[in-house]
Amino acid sequence: MEKKIFSVNWFKPEQKGKDAILSEKELGQIDWWCKHYKGGVSYLTYRIMQYFEAKDAGDDEQLKQLEGIIRASLPYFWEEVTNYETEQ
Which of 4, 38, 69, 83 has the fewest CB within 10 Å, making it most exposed? Predict the structure, then answer.
């Protein structure tokens, strides 16, 4: 698996802030994909909440760990919502 390096410049400018487009694959299994995306949003939201709780508590060790988790996760989440697999 290719390692993704997080960078704001990695995002395609034309896709920033736009609505997600559903692929034919997603439309064909809408219930499964809805649960998949909701689970992903739940995970990412939880990690962001943990990050800010650690920041408010001044826990630098936890902040560093959570930053690494979030940075590693973001490129994969971005691919999911931009139909990366269908654009190749």
Answer: 38
Residue 83 falls in which region: left (phi positive, over 0), alpha (psi -120 to 50) or beta: left
Domain ranges of the chain: 25-82
Q: How far is CA 78 from CA 29, 49, 58, in A?
A: 20, 19, 29
Residue identified by tokens 């034919």 is 24
Residue 86: pLDDT band (50, 70, 90) is: very low
At 25-66, the pLDDT tens digits run 888 999 998 898 899 889 999 999 999 999 999 999 999 999
Helix (H, G, I), strand (E, B) or coil at 12: coil
- Percent of the chain that is helix, strand, coil (3-state, to 5): 75, 0, 25
55: nearest Cα among 45, 44, 68, 64? 64
Residue 88: what pLDDT?
40
